[in-house]
């Protein structure tokens, strides 16, 4: 089941908000949706690449999302970057978001050995949440390893 994330929660898409901290404890899956809420005219949203994100380079205005309620469905796994292109909101006020989207087609865990008892799962949703947790832990380990 897809999750809808309001970027910045109650604060929405605004300046002087720590979007890195906001995204840190979240797991974004293919099919989930980001919703950028803001006052029209005060902000906008650009989907950008990593270099543009790092440098806060503002793309052409015709590429901006500007409705004040911009919905983006996360269609593919991998890194995703978003910035505000109004004035210096990205460069000087931290109005930018980077996330990693996890794919639904993760490789399955190895089968247990015949001597390992297999407890029945109460329902299929339990099995999904366990595998998502395992994938989250593996992703966290890889990220931590890459940062060292």
Task: Round the mean pLDDT to the nearest integer and report it.
Answer: 83
Q: If you compute it from the alpha carbons, what radius of gyration comes out, rounded to the nearest whole angstrom? A: 18 Å
- State the end-to-end distance: 34 Å
**What percent strand?**
15-25%
What does this structure look like?
This protein has 148 residues and is α/β, with parallel strands linked by helices. 28% of the residues lie in helices and 21% in strands. The chain has helices at 19-24, 50-55, 89-93, 124-147; strands spanning 4-6, 28-29, 33-37, 46-48, 69-73, 78-83, 96-102. The strands form two sheets. The protein has a four-stranded mixed β-sheet with strand order 2-7-6-4. A three-stranded mixed β-sheet has the order 1-3-5, with no helix packed on it. It is globular. The relative contact order is 0.18.
Topology:
Layout: E1 4-6, H1 19-24, E2 28-29, E3 33-37, E4 46-48, H2 50-55, E5 69-73, E6 78-83, H3 89-93, E7 96-102, H4 124-147
Parallel strand pairs: 1-3, 2-7
Antiparallel strand pairs: 3-5, 4-6, 6-7
């Amino acid at each position: 089941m897809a999750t809808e994330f309001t970027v910045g929660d109650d604060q929405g898409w605004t300046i002087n908000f720590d979007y890195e901290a906001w995204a840190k404890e979240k797991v974004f899956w293919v099919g989930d949706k980001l919703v950028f809420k803001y006052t029209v005219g005060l902000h906008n949203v650009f989907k950008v690449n990593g270099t543009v994100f790092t440098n806060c380079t503002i793309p052409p205005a015709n590429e901006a999302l500007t409705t004040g309620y911009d919905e983006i469905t996360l269609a593919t796994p991998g890194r995703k970057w978003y910035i505000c292109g109004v004035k210096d909101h990205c460069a000087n006020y931290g109005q930018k978001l980077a996330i990693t989207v996890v794919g639904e087609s993760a490789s399955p865990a190895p089968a247990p050995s015949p001597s390992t008892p297999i407890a029945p799962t109460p329902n299929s949703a339990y099995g999904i949440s366990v595998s998502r947790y395992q994938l989250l832990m593996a992703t966290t380990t890889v990220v931590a390893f890459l940062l060292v």
